[in-house]
Structure formats: C-alpha cells, structure tokens
Amino acid sequence: MESNQASLSILMFPWLAHGHVFPYLELAKNLTKHNFTIFFCSTPIILQSLPLPHHLPITLIPLHLPSPPELPPDLHTTKHAPPHLMPLLRDTFHASKAAFSAILASLRPDILLYDAFQPWAAEAATKFEIPAVHFATTGAAAYSFYYHLFLKKTTPFPHDALYLRPHEREALQQAADSNLRDSDLSEGLPHFTRSRDIVLMKTSRGVEGKYLDYLSLLCNKKIVPVGPLVSTTEKTDSDIMDWLSKKERSSTIYISFGSENYLNKKQVQEMAKGLEASRANFIWVVRFPLGEREEEEEALPLGFEERVGERGKIVEGWAPQAEILSHENVCGFVSHCGMSSMIESVYFGVPVIGVPFKVDQPLNSRVLVEAGVGVEVVRDDSGDFRGDDVAEAIGRVVEGGEEMRARAAGMREAMRGEEECAVAEAAAHLRRICREGFVKHDRCTIEKNGFGSTLFH
C-alpha cells in the first residue's frame, strides 16, 4: 500500500457483459493496493453477482436503466438478455446517460475509467471537470487491426499474421451496419479519442508487444498494459476436479466458448464428432441461450456420452475455468478466443485450439498461432467446421504438442513477470492524471481519408 500518498477515488464503469465486468473488477481490486478507493458502477443484476471481498475499499453503485416491458431489470446484462434483445439492451443502456450524470454529480470522483460502449460517459465527465481514461478489455492486436482499417483503408496491415477471412469480414460489416452510427465513424473510435493521454488495456507486452506499439502510433496515446487480471479465487466444482485428477498428465482438453457465445445445433454435432474421433480426454462446457435448456438433450449426437464413456465429461453452464486450466492434466483449450480466455490460457501455459466467431476473436486466435502456442480449426468459406477438422486440430496439440507447450510455458513466465509492475505503472499514470486534474486537450488527429458507414471496399 502506498500509504504516504493521499487516497484518490476512481469511478469504474464497464459495459454490461461478463467479459468486461470481471476485468474491471480485477483491476479495481489491484488498484486498491495502490491507495485508490473504488466506486464500481453497473446494473443491480450485475452487482448482485460480483464476488467482492468485504475488506477492500470498493463501493458498488447501482445504475438503474429504463425498463421497457420486454426488458425488465433481471435482463440488464448480456449474460441474461437473449440475442434478439441485445439491440434494445444497448439502446436502453445509452438511455441511462442522465442517471449516470447524476451519479457523477453525487460522487465527484477524482477520475473516471469507462468502457468501449459508452464514450458518452467521458463526455458527461467533462461537464464536471473530471478526467476520463478508457480501459479496454479487448487486446492490442484487434484494436490496432481495426484502427488501421478505419484510418488506412487502402494500406495493408503491417503484420501479415493478422487477417480476416471473407465470412469474418462479412460478419463484421453486418455488426457495424447495425451497431455503429455515422457520428461514431466520423471520429474513428470515440472511446479512444475521448480518453486522456493514455489508454489502459487488459494485456501483456510479452503477448502483444508489437501490436501495443503500433496501436500507440495510430491513436497518438500511450497504451498502458495492466496485465492479465486473472482471478484465481473462483469457486470450485469438486466433481469436475476429482474427475480431472484421475486422468494422465497432459492428456485432457478443455472446451468452452465463454458465457455469451453459443454453438448452433450443427456446430454442436460437429464438435461432438471431433471430440469422439480425437480419442482425447475432455471436459466440455455446453451452454445454450437463456430459455433453450430443453434442447440440450437433443443437441448431442445419439449415444455420444455412452460411446465416449469416462474419457469425456459434459458440464452444463459453468465450470471453474481457471482451476481447470491450471491443472497439470490439461494440455489444450478449445476456445472462442475471447480476450479473457486467451489471456487465461497463456497465463496458465496452455496451448489453444481456436474456434473464433466474431469481432476480436479471429485476430486473438491468430496472435496465438503466430506465437506458436495455438492452432486454429479449419473452416470452409461459410465459416462452418467439420468434426474431422476439430479432431485434427486437437491431435496436433495432444499428440505433438510438446514444443507448443514449452513455448506456452515461456509466455506464461513472461506474462507473470510483468504482472505486478504493469499495475504499478497504471496506478502511477492514474495518480499523475488525478494530480493534473481536468485539462482540456486536443483529441488525437484522425486522417480524413474516407470515413463512412462502410468498413471494407
């Protein structure tokens, strides 16, 4: 604890998704060690789920969103809201600007940390002369790729390892058409441009060093990695861990696609075929959107669980991911390659078998492939994969992955070596900004070369 320095207050304001809220919470816990008190703002349904130690100076601040009949308060989180209500959730969140401004006026924190989906929060802070800093839970590789795409459409990205396949570009364009406004595109990435002179980022220089440097060059801000922010205190499931402990060392694959990504029925069938053909032990976390639990028994191939027997364990809904990945009997992670899962896998030295779906996930997967600690399941032009391709990718990690696991162990040590210093550097920057107070400053210069509603030629 930096007891010789005055305590300063931070208001933290993440987006309403599990993959955003928990990195913000881990950063909050780390910053309390550097003499910051934290106000943590989110919807009541999210705050109720947070595993918060009582001894830390973290105060939960509820943000009450408007509640149209089809979106009651228990759906004010992406974890519970069904896919067809996501646009309404986003709009409802934006409609909470006045309520958030009232929170700012009441708390008057020394600084605001805000997320990508609410650059308007930084605007609100300016009215109270509160400095604002963006904390990005997406990594530097994806951000540098997309920022380059916005700014330099006709110039190839300088690192060949990162690219998008046609079906990924099409999905990204559809997402942009439905989610981005022309006013957003006119200034590039507003959550970056409205941040002070730094951007905090959940990543490690040992994993994304060259992409951190290129992103800093593009946005004319210092990108400060805050480390992996991996929680190792989650609750356990003794049944899963007892099963895993009986397997041989480096013999078991863990399969999970995060809390908000779902395989369709065809993909579930092909994944099951691949696991059966691979002959590897596996723990498979199977999730379905809210309200579709009755389809779980029909989704798996007939007789699948009987045929795989004791070498496979199907888990519905939740598993202690960090504890599983840290176990010596796990040798690979079949993942969607969301940033948190990617970082956790590196943190525990586990190679990744990538099955990315959207936005940053394909780029995260290719960072791991470039580093030699991951493989990617082959897909066709429509983005579909076959069971044979799943089995082949798993086989490369289970049967011939000694070198890959050695590289993953090296990345693990590099990441963990940076961890403590990264948070200390972030804390020092935040303290400097608090000391300087609110300063009117120019936003980063954005080249006026063809911004518009289309991302791709």
TrEMBL record:
<dbReference type="InterPro" id="IPR058980">
    <property type="entry name" value="Glyco_transf_N"/>
</dbReference>
<protein>
    <recommendedName>
        <fullName>Glycosyltransferase</fullName>
        <ecNumber>2.4.1.-</ecNumber>
    </recommendedName>
</protein>
<feature type="domain" description="Glycosyltransferase N-terminal">
    <location>
        <begin position="7"/>
        <end position="229"/>
    </location>
</feature>
<keyword id="KW-0328">Glycosyltransferase</keyword>
<dbReference type="GO" id="GO:0016138">
    <property type="term" value="P:glycoside biosynthetic process"/>
</dbReference>
<dbReference type="GO" id="GO:0008194">
    <property type="term" value="F:UDP-glycosyltransferase activity"/>
</dbReference>
<keyword id="KW-0808">Transferase</keyword>
<dbReference type="Pfam" id="PF26168">
    <property type="entry name" value="Glyco_transf_N"/>
</dbReference>
<comment type="similarity">
    <text>Belongs to the UDP-glycosyltransferase family.</text>
</comment>
<dbReference type="Pfam" id="PF00201">
    <property type="entry name" value="UDPGT"/>
</dbReference>
<dbReference type="InterPro" id="IPR002213">
    <property type="entry name" value="UDP_glucos_trans"/>
</dbReference>
<dbReference type="InterPro" id="IPR035595">
    <property type="entry name" value="UDP_glycos_trans_CS"/>
</dbReference>
